[in-house]
Structure formats: C-alpha cells, structure tokens
C-alpha cells in the first residue's frame, strides 16, 4: 500500500565534444596524412639502413630464400636417416659445385667464341646499314653520318681515352668483384646455418611472443618458407624449360655463344614479364650480328613460341593459383625493386611480395587473412 513510487531516470544528454582544428574533416585528413608520412618515413629509413649494410642484408635475404628452396630436399635426406650436418654438407656442396660448373662453362664458351663474334660484328653492322638504306624512308637517313658514327666508334675503341676509361672501369669492376666474393662467402656461411638449424633459429626469434602472437609468428614463418620455396622452385622449372627450348634453337642455327645465351635466358626468366623478352632480344641481336637477318627473325619466332607455351600451359600448372599475383602488382614490385637494388632487386621483388601476401593470408588464422585483406564480395571472380 505504501510502496514508493519509482521514477524513470531521464536519459543523460551526451556531452558535446568541443570542436578543435583536428576533429573536423580536414583535421582528420591531416592526421591520417601525417600518420601515413610517418609510416612511409620509417619504411624509407629501414630501406636506407639496409642499403648501407647491403653486403650483409643481401646475402642474408638470399640465404633465407635458398634455404626455403632446398627445405624439401633437406627433409628428404633427414627422413632417410642422414644427420643434419651431413644433409647440410650434401646440399651446400652440391649447390656450390653446380653454380661453379655452370660459371666455368659460360666463361670457357665466351673465351672460345668471342673472336668469331667480334669478327662478325662489323659485317653485322654493315648489314644493318644496308637494311636501313633499303627502307622506304631511306632518303631521310644520312648514310654518311652512319659511316661517321661507325668510324668514331672504332677510333674511340682504339684511342688512349678508351684505354684510360677501361682502366677506370676495370678498377670499379675489381672492387665489385671483391664485394661479390665477400658477399658470396657470407652467403655460403649463413646458408649453412639456415639449412642446418633453420627451425631452431626461427624458434629462438619467436621467443618474445606468447599466445596468439606466438601462433601468428609461427604461421607467418611457415607460410613465408613455403612461398619462397614454391616460387623459386616453380620459376626455376619454367626458366629451365625456356633456356632448353631457346638454347636448342640457338644450337641448331649455330649462333655463337649459344650456351651463355641459354644460361642468360635461364637467369633473366626469374624477372617476370620483362626478363624473357630482354633475353630474347639479346639472343636475336647476337644472331643478327653473327648469322644475318633471317637467323635473327627465326630466333625471335622461337622465343615467342617458347614463351607462349610456358606462359599458357607450363606456368599455371607449376606455379599454381596460390602464388599468382596480379600483373600490376608484379610491375610495381619490379619497378621498386629495380630502383632500390638494380637487377638483384628485380629478381627478388616478386618473391618478397608473394611471401608478404602469403603472410597476410594467414595473419588471423590458418585460412583466415587479416581483417582488412578479407574478400568483401565472395561472388566476384578474380
């Protein structure tokens, strides 16, 4: 009877946040821009720091990629009862032996066939002049000027200025060779430890993490190793097919330096989109200089046919869709890699980007990408 009457409390009115220069639309845009600039600056500083210690950073990165590439072979040897040290020695010595043998074959072939190529260079240049003079617009081309350019080039090669420049270039090349061997020795040493104790090294690096962060670090490490290994092994198979196909064509046409050109095709095939094209152009130029116009045309046809076959049939099977990146992503990665580290950057840019994408795809779980990278419209086809 005498119960107290309850009253509903009036809802609290939200307190208005005082407006400042940083809370309106332009202020939020400025804040986000500042954050972006800081992130880019930190990234640029990290890249600059790595560039200053490139003698260490590049062998370290190459060792990681090579260790991931040879990981299945190491596991196979270990499953057969081979001790870790023995398996590492077999893989490492085998790799050095193969690389050394291929290098010796290239140098030997270049030395043996260089004179023949040099002798045919002059006649090849004359063939180019005759071909240009036979074009419909040949009247606008000064043949005397072409001959003057040829004479000036020969005089420059035989002059003392060329000799002094050659000495300067030789000194620079000597320094580069010294850095190369220093980096190569460091690469072999790092690769030895990565092959032998790679799992233990990664486990040590993940010690500061706990719980979900530890699981994420292990997932990222596994995805990176699998991506590096699959990408390099797949690319090597595709490059080998390109090199064998084009090399057979060069041998049949009796083009000088066929073996070095085939190896060059193999190496440049590791640069997506443009590598095979550059290798084909170089092979066609050598064929033009040595064997004439028709031989160069046949070489171009062989390069086109081989590239089409591996691009449409072999590469999708070997590489798989899991490692497939959009051509625009590949082009941007190649551009950035080339600007930062020249040829080596062009070779390493795409596998690094592929590994980063693989890590993002397992960021929140074994098959769960990071929230911002998840597909928002599952019905859309890639």
TrEMBL record:
Pfam families: AI-2E_transport
Residues that span the membrane, as ranges: 29-50, 85-107, 166-195, 236-255, 261-285, 292-309, 329-360
Swiss-Prot/TrEMBL keywords: Cell membrane, Membrane, Transmembrane, Transmembrane helix, Transport
Protein transport among keywords: no
A GO cellular-component term linked to this record: plasma membrane
Key word Cell membrane present: yes
Organism for this UniProt entry: Canibacter oris
Cell location: Cell membrane
Classification via InterPro entries: AI-2E-like
Protein name: Putative PurR-regulated permease PerM
Family of the protein in this entry: Belongs to the autoinducer-2 exporter (AI-2E) (TC 2.A.86) family.
GO-annotated biological processes: transmembrane transport
Membrane topology: Multi-pass membrane protein
């Amino acid at each position: 009877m005498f119960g107290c009457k309850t009253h509903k409390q009036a809802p609290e009115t939200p307190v208005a946040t005082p407006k400042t220069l940083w809370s309106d639309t332009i202020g939020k845009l400025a804040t986000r821009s500042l954050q972006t600039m800081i992130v880019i600056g930190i990234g640029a500083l990290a890249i600059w720091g790595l560039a200053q210690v490139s003698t260490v950073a590049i062998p370290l990165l190459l060792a990681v990629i090579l260790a991931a590439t040879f990981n299945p072979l190491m596991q196979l040897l270990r499953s057969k009862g081979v001790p870790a040290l023995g398996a590492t020695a077999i893989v490492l010595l085998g790799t050095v032996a193969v690389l050394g043998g291929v290098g010796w074959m290239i140098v030997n072939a270049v030395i043996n066939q260089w004179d023949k190529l040099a002798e045919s260079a002059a006649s090849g240049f004359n063939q180019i002049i005759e071909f240009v003079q036979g074009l419909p617009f040949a009247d606008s081309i000064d043949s005397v000027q072409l001959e003057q350019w040829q004479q000036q080039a020969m005089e420059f090669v035989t002059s003392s200025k060329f000799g002094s420049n050659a000495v300067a270039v030789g000194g620079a090349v000597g320094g580069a060779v010294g850095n190369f061997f220093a980096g190569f020795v460091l690469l072999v040493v790092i690769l030895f430890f990565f092959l032998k104790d790679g799992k233990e090294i990664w486990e040590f690096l993940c010690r500061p993490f706990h719980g979900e962060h530890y699981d994420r670090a292990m997932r990222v490490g596994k995805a990176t190793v699998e991506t590096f290994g699959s990408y390099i092994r797949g690319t090597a198979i595709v490059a080998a097919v390109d090199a064998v196909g084009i090399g057979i064509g060069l041998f049949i046409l009796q083009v000088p330096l066929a073996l070095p050109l085939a190896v060059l095709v193999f190496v440049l095939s590791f640069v997506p989109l443009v590598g095979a094209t550059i290798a084909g152009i170089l092979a066609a130029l050598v064929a033009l200089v040595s064997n004439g116009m028709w031989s160069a045309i046949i070489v171009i046809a062989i390069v086109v046919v081989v590239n089409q076959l591996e691009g449409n049939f072999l590469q999708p099977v070997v590489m798989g869709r899991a490692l497939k990146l959009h051509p625009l992503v590949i082009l941007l990665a190649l551009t950035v890699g080339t600007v930062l580290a020249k040829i080596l950057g062009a070779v390493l840019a795409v596998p690094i980007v592929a590994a980063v994408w693989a890590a993002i795809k397992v960021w929140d779980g074994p098959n769960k990408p990071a929230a911002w990278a998840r597909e928002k419209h599952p019905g859309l086809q890639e």
